[in-house]
Design goal:
The chain is an alpha+beta fold and 729 residues long. It folds into three domains: 143 residues, Aldehyde oxidase/xanthine dehydrogenase, molybdopterin binding domain (Aldehyde Oxidoreductase, domain 4, 2-Layer Sandwich), CATH 3.30.365.10; 190 residues, Aldehyde Oxidoreductase, domain 4, CATH 3.30.365.10; 320 residues, Aldehyde oxidase/xanthine dehydrogenase, molybdopterin binding domain (Aldehyde Oxidoreductase, domain 4, 2-Layer Sandwich). Helices cover 23% and strands 27% of the residues. It is built from 15 helices and 33 strands. Strand 21 and strand 22 form a beta hairpin. Helix 8 runs parallel beside helix 15, helix 11 runs parallel beside helix 12 and helix 14 crosses helix 15. It starts with 17 loop residues before the first helix and ends in an 8-residue tail after the last strand. It binds dioxothiomolybdenum(VI) ion (MOS). Dioxothiomolybdenum(VI) ion binds next to loops.
Length: 729
């Protein structure tokens, strides 16, 4: 007789960490307390760059009330040079700060004032006098196109450029041709919790409480920068208050806190202020994207060329890949994609919320809409007509592509009834338009490990260095363990975010849940086998069993766990190896977005009225947290289309929009009737869980659906994002 195993994975379970978060018991990095107190660091930013510090007077700051120490390049110990060529990538490279008298970018720290209180540190920081002898810098890639280089790699893709088919011939023979270029603005992730680190030294060991998405690479970055052994770095990060890519790696405040703690001989907290992080947090570069599309008379795509140009921060190797979705969205006789970067004297450019696709679908899906219109084909039909049977770029089979299901479901749920003549649909003084776009995002798996330990009282502890950045990691991992071991979720304790726990690739690239979840699944399956063996040894042979209240229920019998596993309990390790999955297949998550907007006929004010998304991300691990993530992504899509932009003063390389009064994020008033639908699925090739990445999927396609709706409302094709009301007048 088999015990029934209850289905827990997929259930819309409430967040297991919800009560801790809403009651303030969840300890975020900045909340951490240390016996003996914590000194507070405040960053002094460079008022100009690039250049050389020619005067730096900290005497008044040092003499101010409560000041413990002032760190400058003259006082901090030597670090490994920033971004040394032999370093392996941006997350583990040296992130040296206050390195020497050079200033790389506007706002870079030139000093850290440490005081007993934050107020004292901030006041003393205002007393530091610094003078920079500036040199000519590169701030805007568009002004330095002659310096454009092919980057060594682009984020998340195997190839920087691709050239499949004969573009020139296909384009010249196309009936309908579109040549357009787009500008997309710079953006900052703007997580609710700013970047913050509390550092202390215990002898040779550095102990760090920090807001971070990936623990293991942060350990390497510390060790590399400070020239210490990785074994002497301990990072603790049980909760992170949003990352969106900005906390994938360590940033200035993290290294400053470690240096300051050493210099002061006590724990030091350095939090970037909201203003700091528009210079000392990473950002998404502004991009120029050029598209050339050709189709035959029936609307079949023949030629696609998508090239991207952006700035890369000097000595920080990251290049976004906006032409990524273009490689796999539609079939065409020729598809060429190019990425070029200009090295610039600007703050770090890094991954931000769906790097590549967020701004890549914004332009490509807008251009596709325009081409469909030229061809006289409905945009939904156009996409169905150009659906590929295999990955058009790699030629690989698609692992579980259900884009057409998404499109058809979305069209039905939204009530898509075809296009109207642009500018022809009015509701009072509002012009109303509808639009749609496709969402596509590569699905990847990263190496991960996990350990589980079952105690005789029936409680399971699962440990991974995985992070929960607000996404629901604790909850989905709890569900995976509980279901695999047929035990109540309340008996599972998931512990995350400690560099002493088994290594994962953390939260990023939408691979976090699938990767860490698969490792945990493996650990739990191994524990289950071990428990089965113990059952067999004790004379109870069972194919299936369940656990509850410290007992195993098998074959109608109840056996005390303590009798099976003893006081020492039972442990198991698990892992997932990406090499064993989706080999030779093109693996993506999919979706479609439909939008309805209204545009004030007199002022041009744009309001989104409806946004509806349908997504296919394989097996859904928790319908509630998945829906929340998709919804958050769609809301960012609204921001990407209409609101979010970091404006740089190109004379100085300084961001001018440095708070939420200037940097506009979609708020409730901007979020309309918003519907999220998720297809049921199981993606057997992707990973042992059958799930696909969901974290960044909701972003993709939301912006262009809105832009396409704005076009239908007004007849205006805007090729600069975000779209502002004045662009429509
Ligand atoms: Mo993501 S932008 O890889 O956190």
């Amino acid at each position: 007789m088999e015990q029934s195993t209850s289905k827990i994975i997929g259930e819309p379970m409430n967040r297991v960490d919800g009560p801790a978060k809403v009651t303030g018991r969840a300890e975020y990095a900045g909340d951490h307390q240390v016996e003996g107190g914590i000194a507070e660091g405040f960053i002094v930013e460079a008022p100009a760059a690039p250049g050389k510090i020619v005067a730096l007077d900290v005497a008044d700051a040092e003499a101010a009330d409560g000041v413990v120490s002032v760190l400058t390049y003259k006082t901090v110990p030597q670090q490994k040079p920033y971004g040394s060529p032999e370093d392996e990538g941006r997350f583990t490279q040296s992130h040296a700060v206050l390195e020497n008298d050079r200033v790389r970018h506007f706002g870079e720290p030139v000093a850290l004032v440490v005081a007993e209180t934050l107020e004292q540190a901030r006041y003393a920081a205002s007393l530091v006098r610094v003078e920079i002898e500036t040199e000519e810098g590169v701030f805007n890639a568009l002004d330095h196109k002659d310096q454009a280089e092919k980057p060594d790699s682009v984020d998340g893709l195997d190839e920087v450029d691709t050239q499949d088919g004969d573009f020139e011939t296909q384009f010249s023979q196309s009936t309908h041709k579109l040549e357009v270029s787009y500008l997309t603005g710079a953006q900052h992730a703007s997580a609710m919790e700013p970047h913050v680190t509390v550092a202390q030294w215990d002898g040779e060991t550095l102990i760090v409480h920090m807001a971070i998405q990936i623990v293991a690479s942060a350990v390497s970055a510390y060790a590399n920068t400070l020239g210490i052994d990785e074994a002497n770095v301990r990072i603790i990060s049980p909760f992170t208050g949003g990352g969106f890519g900005s906390k994938l790696g360590v940033h200035n405040e993290a290294i400053l806190a470690a240096l300051a703690a050493k210099q002061c001989g006590k724990a030091v907290r350095v939090a970037q202020t909201r203003r700091n992080l528009f210079a000392n947090g990473p950002h998404r570069s502004r991009h120029l994207q050029e598209l050339k599309l050709g189709a035959d008379a029936s609307g079949k795509l023949r030629a696609v060329r998508h090239s991207s140009l952006a700035s890369m921060a000097r000595n920080y190797p990251f290049a976004e890949a906006p032409a990524s979705p273009t490689r796999a969205s539609y079939a065409a006789d020729a598809i060429h994609t190019f990425h070029r970067m200009v090295k610039a004297d600007i703050p770090k450019v890094d991954s931000m919320r769906a790097p590549g696709e967020a701004i890549g679908t914004l332009t490509y899906e807008t251009a596709i809409d325009e081409l469909a219109e030229m061809c006289g084909v409905d945009p939904v039909e156009f996409r169905i007509l150009n659906e590929p049977t295999q990955d058009p770029t790699s030629g690989h089979a698609f692992a579980d592509r259900r884009l057409l299901d998404c499109i058809r479901t979305g069209a039905a749920k939204f009530g898509w009834s075809g296009r109207v003549k642009p500018g022809s649909r009015m509701a009072g003084r509002k012009l109303v338009g509808r639009g749609m776009a496709v969402a596509i995002r590569p699905n990847t798996l990263s190496p991960a490990q996990a350990e589980v330990k079952l105690a005789a009282d029936g409680r399971l502890v699962a440990r991974l260095d995985m992070t929960d950045i607000g996404t629901g990691t604790y909850t989905i991992l709890t569900q995976i363990a509980a279901e695999t071991l047929s035990m109540p979720a309340s008996q599972v304790l998931v512990q995350l975010g400690d560099s002493r726990f088994p290594e994962t690739a953390g939260s990023g690239g939408s691979f976090g849940a699938s990767s860490s979840g698969s490792a945990l699944l493996d650990a739990c399956a191994k524990l289950k086998s071990a428990l089965s063996e113990r059952l067999t040894e004790s004379g109870v042979s069972a194919n299936a069993f369940a656990m509850k209240d410290g007992r195993v229920l098998a074959n109608g019998k109840r056996i005390e766990l303590a009798d099976l596993i003893g006081a020492e309990g039972l442990s198991a390790d698990g892992a997932v190896d990406p090499d064993n999955h989706a080999k030779g297949q093109a693996d993506y998550s999919y979706g479609v977005q439909f939008a309805e907007v209204e545009v004030d006929a007199d002022t041009g004010e744009i309001r989104v009225r409806r946004l509806l998304g349908v997504f296919d991300a394989g097996r859904i691990l928790n319908r509630k947290t998945a829906r929340s993530q998709l919804m958050g992504g769609m809301i960012f899509g609204i921001g990407g289309a209409l609101l979010e932009e970091s404006l740089m003063d190109d004379r100085f390389g300084s961001f001018m929009t440095r708070d939420f009064a200037e940097y506009h994020i979609a708020v409730n008033r901007d979020v309309p009737d918003l519907e999220v639908h998720i297809l049921d699925g199981y993606s057997e090739h992707s990973n042992p869980l059958g799930s696909k990445g969901i974290g960044e999927l909701g972003i993709c396609g939301a912006g262009p659906a809105i832009a396409n709706a704005v076009h239908e409302a007004t007849g205006v094709r805007v090729r600069k994002f975000p779209v502002h009301m004045e662009d429509l007048l």
